[in-house]
Amino acid sequence: MTEPGALSPLQPAAFHILLALADGDRHGYAVIQEVEARTGGKVRLSAGTLYRSIQRLLEQGLIAEVKERPLPELDDERRRYYRITPLGIATARAEARRLAQLVDMARARGLAPGRA
Amino acid sequence: MMRLYRALLTVYPASFRRQYGAEMLGIFARRRREAAGPLAVVGLWAATLGEVLGNAAAVHWDLLRQDLRYTARGVRRAPGFAATVLLVVALGIGANTAAFTVTDFVLVRPLPFQEPERLVKLWESRPGYEWMEPSPANYRDWKRMSSAFESMGAFTGTSVNLVGHGDPVRLAGAEVTAEVLPLLGVRPLLGRFFTAAEDRPGSGGTVLLSYRLWQDELGGDAHALGRRVTLDGAPFVVIGVMPRDFHFPDTRARFWMPARLRDQDFLDRNDNWLEVVAKRKRGISLAAARAEMTVVAARLERQYPKEDARTGALVIGLREELSQQSRLLLLALSGAALCVLLIACANLAGLLLARALARRQELEVRAALGAGRERLLRQLLTESLVLAMLGGALGILVAGAAVPLLARLSPASLPIAQAPAIDLRVLLFAVLLTAATGIGFGLVPALRACREAGFAALREGGARGGGGRRERLRAALVMVEVTASVVLLISSGLLIRALWRLQATDPGFRAQGVLTLRTALPTPKYASTARRAAFYQHVLTGARALPGVQGAAYASFLPMVHSGGIFPVALEGQPLQREAATAASLRFVTPGYFAAMGIPLRRGREVNEADARERPAVAVVSDSFVRRYWPDQDPLGRHFQFAFGERTVVGVVGDVRVRGLDRSSEPQVYLPYLQVPDGALAYYAPRDLVVRSAASVEALLPPLRQIIREADPEQPVSEVRTLAAIVAEQTASRSLQLRVLGAFAAIAFLLAGIGIHGLLACAVSQRAREIGVRRALGAQSADILTMVLRSGVLTAAIGLVPGLALAYGAGRAMEALLAGVEPGDAPTFAAAAALCLLMTVSGSIVPALRALRVDPMTVVRTE
Asked: In B, which residues are within 8 Å of A46 by CB distance?
């Protein structure tokens, strides 16, 4: 089994996708919308970037396709839904820790904005 | 709009498109709807275009990396397989590319002249001689009486002494009539060609330099035109320089001077020494030119019934002029290379078939787990291509190493430079053939496995479905390999026997312990016989006084170095007939020649210092001369007409292979050096020095050079060699060619051995269950061993039979090279069959032992 830290650092797009899936299964377009909403419209994933990242995340075992679908009336036939795996959660966590450490280091040198 | 986007998506890999294409279309449709106004649409397209191209490249790269990882993992898991494939591919591509490069270079590629296909050479044909140089008189008449040619010219090889800076040197070149260089269609780099006026007797000396001579002697001087060079003591004005890659008549030529044929050159219609080159008119075929020359020759024969009796005119394409032997050897080499490639491909096919069988289950599992067909196909394709490319790269290395070696096989007598570069077309052909084999045999069986997947997939035993047919195919491939390698082996074997036979041939002299060198004395400086005699005396006296020297002498030409000097012989009262039945070779020699060469004196005496000009003309003749004219009679004191005079036999010596070890030679006539007539036969004035020494012959050279410098400081020394080296050179190119052919045969045999081993190893592992059951039922080790060996030997035997038949055919085709060895030479065939058996057994031994190790209990338990 792959170690969570082994895939770090994650590509920004991959990290965004993991974050978007952290609170529930989503299909591709929903991931794009979620990322766009969370970043206040700053990050707008293109279809190619999204699915390329998804394919890689699937291969790495960080996400999985979901067999069971939401309610039929909400479901669009063409859509595949993705769910974050425990390895994906661990990896996202490891990535967040890595970023936090980076921010700490920057803050210690007075470079970071914010509360400190 | 959407159609455009759909088209754009095709740059993604098919597997990716199939997975995500529909959703990507959906997302694009939304974006399109959101875009308000034409400007936004343009912006969307620009962004989409960049995004799609970038991401598609990234996805392709991801897949490639993944496939390369699979490939690397496969190589790690079965390194023997990968190594074998690479070896097979590299050898096949390398050997083939190298051999075809050289063959194409020598036999096929047009000569570096303008419209080379229209260039021909013309030869006289006379009874007993296939090709003979035309006499100047016949050349002049051919030129006058024919209409098929745009231009016709004549040339003859020559060599001169050049006294420039440093040591005097001997240079080879050609005397050409004014027509020769223009008709080849190559412009001079500097200056101009000879004018017709410069080609007349009595006109001042002019010379064209080769690029190399221009560089060496004039330092590439851009103002070389008009400069004077001293050749054979006479001044010549440089009128031009030829381009670097111009070689004519062969690569040795360093200069060209006008032939300046004199009136007396045309007197004797039987004085054959010119070479004639011509350019056919456009629209006149080779056949038409030949037909016309046949008519011309017939008219000349009627006109000069005595001199031109049974004399024909041959028209031969310039490219076709290679000797039959060179041509045959190169073709044999190409055939061998093709055999190696064929065997390599058969072997590769066998290996891949076995692997596809072994990987069937793996592929089926992956297909069942949802990997699309496109994805598997892509992976397998990547794998095959990687192996083919690596093998190809190795093959280029092999070819790169082999071409210079093979280039030494190309005859020096061609007007082309001697170093062919690797032929890209041939390389490409070999790589494509290998790649096609790889894809054909690697991909197709795997694909079939994919298609069947899902149904039979995980069912135990499903993998054994098409096994029987595939195994038969593999066995057939191995048989082809055995056949081809047996043909190669026997062909090489026959040629080796021929080489041994040649090397064992007695040249007629003792070659060991003799140093030879050439001092070609130039005219007019040495036009008189007395002047030359003084030079010889000085050199020979000095040489004989050197420590260890047992004998020293001068002769016109050494045997095997120069095979010409053929003159007709007539007994008293008979007319001179220029044909093979009356020909003998002429050599002027100094006293001591036979002792220095180790040619046995059979009767009478050798030539001596008393055989001077005013004394009776005497001759020493060889055994075969006596056999031809006076069998069972005493030849001493007999007379015969030869080389413009009547000669009296004073001695008989052993025969010498003047024309070389593998050719029959005319009887020999030796004349005393003092009896060279002044102004005539100057070409035959002695020039080759032979010194026999009990001590090391190499140590002789410095003192000999000193002695020659004392005799004439302007006299160059050339062609320093040992007599043993001259004899060895007779078989050198042949033994080199043979080494190449032998290497091909060894490669082929190795590959066939690998093929047999692979076949049996696969069969044993597939039949492990059967073997285990047999053992459990009480079969002995010997039975199992016999079973495996029998199938190996049977396969080899079926391949062997057509191999023997084809090898006999190949032997017949190259009979001219076999020096009398029978094409069906029994020892060679027996040895090849034995080797084949040996190879089969050694190829079978490992699988057979593995079969013995099959444990009946494990096999039965897994069932």
From this structure: 47-48, 51, 55
Q: Which helix (H) or strand (E) segment is B122 a member of?
A: strand B119-126
Report residue B451's pLDDT band, with 50, 70 and 90 as the boundaries: low
Kindly compute the dihedral angle of the four CA atoms of residues B638, B642, B647, B648, in this order, to the nearest 10 degrees. -20
For B126-142, letters b (16+ CB in 10 Å) and e give: beebeebbbbbbbbbbb
For residue B562, the 8-state DSSP code is -
Lowest mean pLDDT among A82-96, B257-271, B411-425, B674-688: B411-425
Count residue pairs from A and B with Cβ separation < 8 A.
54
On whether any CB of chain A is under 8 Å from the CB of B48, the answer is yes
Element (H, E) at B210: none
Q: Does A94 touch chain B (CB under 8 A)?
A: no
Please list every residue in chain A whose beta carbon sits closer than 8 Å to the beta carbon of residue B370.
Answer: none
Give the span between the Cα atoms of B277 and B116, in whole angstroms: 12
| Residue, of B200 and B163, whose pLDDT is higher | B200
Is the predicted ipTM greater than 0.85, yes or no?
no
Q: How far is CA B782 from CA A83, B276, B386, B785, B838, in A?
A: 62, 74, 43, 5, 19
Q: Does A27 touch chain B (CB under 8 A)?
A: yes
Rounded to whole angstroms, how far apart are CA atoms B81 and B74? 9
**Is the confidence at residue B456, as pLDDT, over 50?**
no
Burial class of residue A59 (count of CB atoms within 10 Å of its CB; 0-12, 13-18, 19+): exposed
pLDDT digits over A15-60, tens only?
Answer: 999 999 988 888 888 898 889 998 888 888 888 899 999 988 988 8
3-state secondary structure B298-338: HHHHHHCCCCCCCCEEEEEEHHHHCCHHHHHHHHHHHHHHH
- Cβ contacts (< 8 Å) between A26 and chain B: which residues? none
Cis amide bond preceding A9, omega within 30:
yes
Quote the CA–CA distance of B642 and B649 in Å, as a whole number: 12
- Average pLDDT (B496-512) is 88
Q: Is A4 on the interface with B (CB under 8 A)?
A: no
How large is the average pLDDT for residues B811-837? 87
Residue B315: φ, ψ to 5°: -115, 120
Which residue of B55, B63, B67, B69 to mutate against A (max A Cβ within 10 Å)? B55
B29 touches chain A (CB under 8 A): no
**For a pLDDT cut of 90, what percent of chain B falls above it?**
31
Distance from CA of A94 to the nearest CA of B (A): 24
State both tokens at B777. Answer: 């039922």
Strands B688-693 and B601-604 turn out to be: unpaired
In this structure, are strands B583-589 and B668-672 parallel, antiparallel, or unpaired?
Answer: parallel
B55/A46 touch (CB, cutoff 8 Å), yes or no: yes
A101 close contact with B: CB closer than 8 A: no
Decide which of B640 and B87 is more confident.
B640
Nearest C-alpha of chain B: how many angstroms from A116? Answer: 39
pLDDT given at position B461:
43
B786 has pLDDT over 50: yes
Q: What is the pLDDT of residue B862?
A: 60
Tell whether pTM > 0.90.
no
